[in-house]
Amino acid sequence: MIEINQISKSFAGKDAVKDLDLSIPDGKIFGFLGPNGAGKSTTIKMMTGILPIDKGSIVMNGIDVSKDPIKAKLQFGYVPDRSDIFLRLKGIEYLNFIADVFEVSQDMRKEKIEYLTKSFGIYEALNDHIQTYSHGMRQKIVVSGVLLHDPDVWILDEPLTGLDPKSSYTLKEMMREHASRGKIVFFSTHVLEVVEQLCDEVAIINNGHVQFKGNMAEMKQQFAEDDNLERLFLELTQNE
């Protein structure tokens, strides 16, 4: 479970996130929506420890991410919204580096690396440098690294960006399977159709505040039965 309790973050005196509360139960695919500048990435960076929390707390599987950051980081895998990292490493070097950090055994890492990279169609490129990869391939190698140690919580910031249809389908199936095992998938996206098809619950953030949290049925019931997600999203964020 993830408990986000009254967190706030400001930059140069301006609130990016203000008194944000979210409770995300196990076994859910949780969609995090909002327009550009709404506070999505800031929230995610506080969840992952990249940004310090000005006020409030985030507890992941019973571990406070501020008080015990190393133990908290073992609970999750994080796909950032940019995949331009470790470009001078070969794909296999990057995955072995991640496996070393999370103490994945040699036998397990070999099996997982082969499974993940073949699933995403990049197995044959593992001995190439990441800087030679296309944007989509870089996204795939980062996703493979995140899933390598099988963390309980997946935190994915725009994970489908740059993926071809086959790889996008593969990742969505992996997300469903992960949640079905009682784990959490927390992801932000601008692809509203994916949220409507995939998410068990959704939160919409705007101007640093949560405008709505619930499942799709509750959202549609709150507004109009025949509304689709795009119209609801635009209505909730109309003052942006």
From TrEMBL:
Instruction: Domain (ABC transporter): give its ranges.
Output: 2-232
Fetch the CDD domains from UniProt.
ABC_DR_subfamily_A
Q: Which organism is it from?
A: Halobacillus karajensis
Record's keyword terms, sorted: ATP-binding, Nucleotide-binding, Transport
Tagged with keyword ATP-binding:
yes
Which InterPro entries does the protein's record reference? AAA+_ATPase (IPR003593), ABC_transporter-like_ATP-bd (IPR003439), ABC_transporter-like_CS (IPR017871), ABC_Transporter_VariousFunc (IPR051782), P-loop_NTPase (IPR027417)
Do the record's keywords include Methyltransferase?
A: no
GO terms for MF: ATP binding; ATP hydrolysis activity
Q: Which protein is depicted?
A: ABC-type transporter ATP-binding protein EcsA
Q: Which gene encodes it?
A: ecsA_2
